[in-house]
Amino acid sequence: MKKPLRRAPRPSSRWMWGILCDYTRIFSIVEDRRGDFSPASPLQAQLGRIAVIADGAHSFGAVRGGIRSGAWADFTTFSFHAVKNLTTAEGGAVTWRRDLGLDDAALYRRYMLLSLHGQDKDALAKTKAGAWEYDIVAPLYKCNMTDIMAAIGLAQLHRYEELLAKRYALVEQYHELLASTAIRPARHLTEDGRSSCHLYLTELEGKTLSQRNAVIDALAQQGIASNVHYKPLPLLTAYRDLGFRMEDYPNAYGLYERELTLPLYSTLTQAQAERIAGHCGRSCRRNHGKYPNVPAPCPARTGCNGRQAAL
């Protein structure tokens, strides 16, 4: 690329947590800049433009405009880690669109080589009579999913729609219970589609970081484990050491200091959700004082250059 893409989508266009972004807009930008694209590999040359690659870790099962996650972007990666809404305990998958004109078999083989030491046969293929011979074509990686994990995933797939339905019902219940409060949830269910309802994220209107943390503490005292998704990257040591500054991303910080994630999982009962929402609402209504041991706030928004980041 000779020039940067247009500015990132505005805060109202955030996408994470299983909520699909506006891919139509993204592809429009990519197509507008097709002439600026300079390929660095034969695969990129075949595609002829910037590849749209989605981190779909949370979005398995999400739909937008009638199209499922995994079929929107050119390539989509999924995580099936133990905390995901479809799990194989560990592992993941990658999908790509069939209309790209790529050599599917060659691409699949490349992924297999990358994930299994660069070996041109897996263990099952080598156990067939007379098929012991194999080759290592390059010193690559060991990151394949085991057959046992895949079997867990197949069992999960058979019941996944049922699991999604439970999540949808819980999200709708939370929405109703919190409707009269200053707790604003992420939009998981819309006319245009639905998310995977992986996380129930909320924004605590008018709260500071210390007050948000006090709500987390109050919920913990009731045995309720809430969370924050996520810390902006410039707050993490590795990215501070790379030169990222929190004051350059005021929108990301503004969301972070007010964000609170409530428990959401398929075995959560309606009674438990009602109890959680009740305690959360009461905790937010209290006038919490300062909370100790919290990071310093983004420096008064002064000197911020207005850049936005989906961190």
Describe the structure using short key phrases.
311 residues, alpha+beta, 4-stranded antiparallel β-sheet, 3-stranded mixed β-sheet, 10 strands, disordered C terminus
Structure, described:
With 311 residues, the protein is of the alpha+beta class. Helix content is 34%, strand content 11%. It has 10 helices and 10 strands. The strands form 3 sheets. The protein has a 4-stranded antiparallel sheet with strand order 3-2-8-7, with no helix packed on it. A hairpin with a 2-residue loop joins strand 2 (63-64) and strand 3 (67-68). The longest helix is centred in the middle third of the chain and has 19 residues, at 160-178. It is globular.
Give the topology.
Blueprint: H1 23-32, H2 42-47, E1 53-55, E2 63-64, E3 67-68, E4 75-79, E5 92-96, H3 104-115, H4 123-126, H5 147-158, H6 160-178, E6 183-185, E7 189-190, E8 193-194, E9 200-204, H7 209-221, H8 237-240, H9 250-258, E10 259-262, H10 270-285
Parallel strand pairs: 1-4
Antiparallel strand pairs: 2-3, 2-8, 4-5, 6-9, 7-8, 9-10
Shape: globular
Number of strands: 10
Strand content: 5-15%
Poorly predicted runs are: 8-15, 287-311
Structural class: alpha+beta
* Spatial ordering of strands, largest sheet: 3-2-8-7
Quaternary organization: single chain
What's this entry about, in short?
The chain is an alpha+beta fold. Helix content is 34%, strand content 11%.
